[in-house]
Amino acid sequence: MVRCNSCGGVYEPTLPDGMQYFHACPPLTPAELRRALADATVRIAAADVERLRAAREADLAAPVPPGELTREETVLRSLAVNRPDRRDENVTGTIDPLTKQSRMRALGTGITPIREA
Amino acid sequence: MPDAAMQSPALAGPGWYLNADDNLRIIVYNALAGVKVTVSGRRLDRVGNLVDVFAWEITPTSDRVASTIIRRLGEGWLLSLHAYASTGAPLIGQTFVTIGIVRGYSGQVDELGTLAAGYVTSKQRIAWPGGPIANSVDGAGAIRKITGANPAAGAEISETVPTGARWQLLQFKLLLTTSGVAGNRQPTLTIDDGTNFYFTSGMHTVTAASVARTMYWMYGMGVFAAATANGFIQGLGNGPMLPAGHRITTSTAAIDVGDQYSAIHYVVREWLEGN
After folding, report:
1. Which residue of chain B has the CA closest to A87?
2. Which of A57, B191, B211, B219 is the residue whose CA sits 20 to 30 A from B170?
3. Could you give the ipTM of this predicted complex?
4. Rounded distance, CA B102 to CA B126, Å?
5. Model-level pTM?
6. Nearest partner of B272 among A114, A19, A85, A73, judged by Cα
7. How far apart are CA A34 and CA A36, in angstroms?
């Protein structure tokens, strides 16, 4: 088993059927996206910035009942924003003529082998 | 065309005349580690007096990217060939072979014809002449059970269709263990193209705090299937089709940073797209 240093996901690189598992980090969660936008580590389209602003204003003006998703949360959930250090083990579809290996799409911050408990 | 070859009795049957610049190109798309493919056959030399045999073994990559070799046959007549998995135990849907004639050996080559194409296993072969030129997305595909990545606590599941694959999602199972923070979680299984969602199937029943709940999404079931003692069951319709790069994810209402998804298992029917 290995842990992805970019997203914290844990997986087996080779599955029991002998096939490779190609991990790709999930998009930022709403909480991560909210932080990343505040820290300006990711950018989203201007139209989505406007949707978020309008949702926050609407939440302040008319808060949703407890237990329901806020309008801001709903907008954040509708956005699939990749983390900046995303790892994507899928290959590019071509073989490097020098190494004779397929190129990984994105290394991210690497992986760490872990022992199962 | 050589006169001697034209007069050969062997040419009463099918044959493909090759000049000195015509070569055999073998392309293998493979998804299983440890597979080797052997291509073997017979040829008649230029003057038609020698039936020669040839055999090549190819070790393809296991990432579904094309592994290509070109081999010289020399001037003469190609009489027959076949290909099969000589090492490993691929299923139909995991190792696809295309064999054709090209002019040239390296760099840019001209494609002249396709002789055979199809999935191979250790027992099932593709052959020329007489065999079909199959499409890699035809047929039953390979049924695979995949163990997904456990995301970090508080994060959603995300599984991506690998490069070179086409999936039909048949079943999806997960375990959601909620933290002690109050709130009703409600996962929705979603599929997106990397950016935009186009399929959702929300679980019909919420999961409260401090609970471990197994949930299933099943092929052939409509939306809102059942809740059983073993977990919640939801429908996947007729099994959505996903090309490479599309993602199966969860989107969980009221997810807490301490909630944990695990035991992620799903079944897909896989075909090789060929890149």
Report:
1. B160
2. B211
3. 0.78
4. 19
5. 0.84
6. A19
7. 6
- B144 in reach of chain A (CB within 8 A): yes
Q: How many residues does chain B have?
A: 275
Per the CB < 8 A criterion, the answer to whether B33 and A19 are in contact is: yes
Is A91 in Cβ contact with B65 (below 8 Å)? yes
Domain residue spans of chain A: 1-26+84-117, 28-81
Is the CB of residue B42 less than 8 Å from the CB of residue B73?
no
- The owner of tokens 């003057």 is B47
Number of other residues whose CB lies within 10 A of the CB of residue B200? 13
B146 and A CB contact within 8 Å: yes
Please enumerate in sequence order all residues whose Cβ is within 8 A of that of B175, keeping only pairs 6 or more positions apart, or say none. B212, B213, B214, B215, B261, B262, B263, B264
Interval A62-95: pLDDT, tens: 998 877 778 998 899 888 898 999 999 998 877 7
pLDDT in tens, A12-51: 999 988 889 999 999 898 888 999 999 999 999 999 999 9
Task: Give the nearest partner residue to B154 out of A4, A31, A78, using CB atoms.
Answer: A31
